[in-house]
Structure formats: C-alpha cells, structure tokens
Write a structure and sequence with these properties.
By secondary structure, the chain is an alpha/beta fold. 44% of the residues lie in helices and 9% in strands. Bound molecules: iron/sulfur cluster (2 copies). One iron/sulfur cluster is lined by residues 89-92, 94-95, 101, 105-107, 109, 114, 160.
Amino acid sequence: MISTRRLFSAVASSPSLRRVKYADQYRALAAATSAVPSSSSYSPVPPAGQFHIARAAAIPPLCRTTTTTTTRSFAASASLIPPNPAMLCRQCEQTQDGIACTTLGICGKTAEVSNAQDALVHVVKCVSLWCVAARRAGVTEEELRDANVWSLRSAFSTLTNVNFDEERIAEYLKEGMQIKKDLMGLISSKGVVGADAFPTGPVADLTLDPSMSCSDLEEFGKSVGILARQAAMKNDDCFSLTEIATAGAKGVSAYASHCYQLGYIDEANIIAPLHEVWSKLASDEPDLEGLLATTLRVGEINLATLALLDEAHNGTYGAAVPTEVRMTPVAGKCILVSGHDMGDLYALLVQTEGKGINVYTHGEMLPAHGYPEMKKFPHLVGNYGTAWQNQKIEFATFPGPVVVTTNCIQEPRKKYRDRIWAMNEVGVSNVKHLPDGRDFTPVIEQALKCKGFASDATPVKYTTVGFNHRAVLPLAGEVITAAQEGQLSRIFLIGGCDGTESERSYYTDLAESTPDDSLILTLGCAKNRVIHSEKLRGATLSNGIPRVLDMGQCNDSYSAVVVAMELAKALNCGINDLPLSLAISHLEQKAAAVLLTLLHLGVKNIRLGPRLPAYITPGILQVLVDKYNLMPVGADAKEDLKLMMEGK
Ligand code: SF4
Ligand code: SF4
C-alpha cells in the first residue's frame, strides 16, 4: 500500500479519466477481473472438527462483544442449538446471540414463516435444475420468462425483512411446482431424449401437493432446512460455503428483481448462471473446491447484476446528478415511499401530479432525488426519516400513507398498520398489499383523508445525493491534483446496511474522525451513519469538492466499484494499492452479495462489522483472512483509523 501523495505523484502525467458507456464499462470490468485468481488456487481449509485452536486465536475477532467470533460461528456453537428447534435461521447479522434464531426471529419472523421460506428455497433449487435442463434442451428465453421471474422473486421474498406472510410464501411454492411441470412439458416439446434430458435426484424430483396444510409445509421446510442439509453434507466448512453462496444468491436475486421491475433482464449473464449456482447448491456433495468457485461465482454474477441495475436506474430516469434534498417536511398532505424500487416511486409521482399531495422518500429511496426524471416533479418535496430500523418511530409520526416497495420492512405497529401499503415481494400478514400494476388509487385516497403536515418544520436541513460514478469520475482529475498537492490524505468507503445495534455507531465515529483532508464515499442505508453528522454536513476539501459523496442505495454499489477501478486504471495500479480504506456495515443478503463481488474482484483489507455472519466456520474464515485479509471492525474507530491512515 502506498501513500496517497506518492501514488498520485507517480502518475502526474496520467491521461485524464474517460467516461465510457456503461455496458462497455461492465464488459471492461469483467475482462479486467477475469485475471483474478480462481478459487482453485486456494489452499484447502482444515476439515471440520480439526480446526487448530492456536490458529483460531490468530484470526482477528470479527466482533467486539466476545473474545473471538470463531467461537460464535456455527461449527463451534452447534451444541448451543437446542435439539429439534422450531426453526433455524442464521442468514443475517442480527441472528440471536450470533448463533441462530431458533424460536422466533430477531427480525420478527415466525417459525412458520422461516420453515416455509426454507421450503421455498428448496423449490427454487428444484426449478433451477429444470431451467438448466430446459436451456440445454433449447427452450428459449421467452419460454423461460415465467420461470426466470418466479425464481428471482421467490428467492427475494426469503431475504431478511422482506416477507413475513406465510400465505404469500405458500403461493410462491404452488407457482413453483406448476412452473416445474411447465418446464417438463417444454423440454419434452423440444424432442430431446436421452439420460441427460431431464434432471434427476431428490431435489429435481420434488413434488409438493398444492393442497398440503401449513403444518405439513412447515415439516417439509424443516426436512430441507439448515440442520438437515448440514447433516447430509457431513462437512461443516463445505456447508458454510453453501450458506455463504445461498445468502449471496438471494442478494443477487433481489438486485435482479429490481432490474426486472424496470424492464431490464439479462438471461445470459445473470439468470442462467444464477440457476447454475442454485443447481450446485441443491447437491449435498462436500465439494470444497467446487463450492469455493461457486461462492466467488456469485460475486461475479452480482457484478453483472449491479452493472445492469446501474444502467436500469440511470437509463430510465436520466444520469443521476448531485442534488440537494430537503430533509425536513413541508406543510401539506403527504405520502411516504420506502424500499428500493424506483419504478414504483415514479408511477406514484405521475399519479399524484396536481392532486395537492407531497411525496417524500424514506430510507433507501433517498437517492431518487438525484435522477432528472424524478426531480422534474415539484411535489417530490424531500426525504423523511432515516434508515429502516427507525421506521417504527418514523412511520408512526408520518401523517399520511406509507408505501413499502421492497425491503426493509418491520412488523408494523398497530398505530400505523392501516397506513402501510406493501408492494412486490414485501409481505406482512394483515397489511394491505397493492396488486402488481402500480395502481396507487387507494393510497392517494387515503392520503387525501389523512391530515398531512400542518406546517413547515424548522430548522430546515438538507443533504446532497447523486454522486453516482458518472458524477464522481469527472472530478477524478481534481482529486488527483489535490492528492499531488498534499490536500487529500485518503479515501474511505463507509457504507452497507444499517441496523439496530449500538455497535454500529462505529461507522459514525469513524466518519467523524476522518481527517479534514479526506474523502468519504458512502452508500446503502448505512449512509445514515454519515450524512446526518453535523460535523460532516457541508464539509469540503480545500478545492471545494464535498468531503462526503453519497453514491446512492446499496443497489448502487456498482458506482463504488467503477470509481475504484477507474482510479486504479488512471493511476496504473491495482485496487489494493489505492489509498482507499473500506469499512462495510453488514446485515443481510444483499450485503453478502456485494461482499462476494468485492472478493471476486480481489479487493483486500475490507473491515466488516459489526459482527461476522454466523454461518461462517473458522475454517472458511481462515481462508477469507489468509486470502483477502478480511478484518473485523475494531472496538475503537479512532484506533482503526490510525491503522487505515497507515494503509493497514
Ligand atoms: S433473518 Fe436474521 S433475524 Fe430474521 S430469523 Fe433469520 S437470522 Fe434471525
Ligand atoms: S441497505 Fe440493506 S439493510 Fe438497508 S434497506 Fe437496503 S437491504 Fe435493507
């Protein structure tokens, strides 16, 4: 790692950065990253049960509340899981005691929903096996459309904080079984014969009775859940990889669903390889090398997906530009829109035009204000609230209906439940769900009946969004000059998911402690740890570039990748040689997908926190530490900062 000044001085005559078309950009990135060492270069990890304690002690703890995270990961803690638990979910960072949710999710997910979601993931694997066979048989993309969309949406509905409604999960299951039947028919119609024509094995052969009771469904879910599959695989490290890849594949499915919402779909680079991944995950074979490759492959597919989503957002609503957003309400009737789907917000803005209703963004919708096609609506007046985990307070105090387009939703309080309108994959029992088609008539009617804000809130506050890579790259020349002149000491990427834990204040502490001559790139809802800081509000480098560049949603992580890759290219160095420190706030499966993308790109020295996912075994953690120098966030952000400033 070299210092900012030395690095930038070394390229004093570097050609100016080019802005390129983004399909081209993705192709270039894909080509550039094909040189990243394949997973087959990994040293084998120690088999389960033989993890050497002395070696474990050398691994940095990835949490701050126990001596080592390795003691909290599932291989070491299996004995802490009660026999025959009502459920077992450990897919997100919030999981109970850092081990697993076994009776009721910390997120509020019931055992019934958790088991039904396990069943649904199993059916996604089944349908994926049939999709792979169908492609081999010559079934066309058009013929596969229903299966493609169903598999994305079904997997998305099993993410943390998306769907708490067992009935909706059961609907997806029924559709999945019908899709499998349709795929059998499509393959047969192609006249393909032979042993390879149809997939075989217990997952491919799966049949569920559409009239099965909820309790039968839950029992089935348990029979294909984590504990059953882990026992079948008989290798904890291999099973850990299946859980990492599963989390990542869910995240990719969510991002690809967002693309589909905007009419963008990529069969060759996203859907087909995703089905290959699910098919691999259908197997119980403890194939360590193959699973490592599959896990990194998820990161690669996610890179393609994020690139497509970037194109979908900026192609549909105009290239995002830096835009000041009012963060305090104004008098009038109002609707709040949360989640990630821009298409839903746009449709609502069209339908509320001239109706005397102000529209506000919430959470991950904040970046919408940067798009020209959104900004043109004067009744998109600002943003209300912060990140998802504060919604029980923020939705309760908002005097109008709240539309939740996608994650993250929490079980609504009675006080405002009747004002919540779920959409798309989001599901909560006894919460109204808008049918597909984006007809907001009932929401608008409710907004007109609600009292709205009586007056403008004061003092008025603003933040600036829209620092997409298209807006940041033209600043690169000035950034390089600032570094050459000793006016830029370091660049930080502080982003990811936000959450309830007090330890997440680390990210605010880190941002506020960064030197005045450093830049902070931020994205995802963890940005709320940065953008509300009074210390950082309005701060600029000596050349006037804002110190905090809000790159958008977690869906816009591609922007950070492009900026890093382009800077490295301009400076003729690797990403890991840039004066860049990454502190990622991890929570759920989209974050897992982004982490895998960074690993696929060979990015090292990432600080991850506040806790390591419970599904990572000591053996797999060792691989990540050895290969990528993955680090925990420390107990003290200022101490970490000292190391970061030294390039560590
Ligand atoms: S999603 Fe997270 S909090 Fe919810 S049940 Fe699973 S591990 Fe627990
Ligand atoms: S960044 Fe992650 S935690 Fe935050 S709203 Fe999006 S999906 Fe949820």
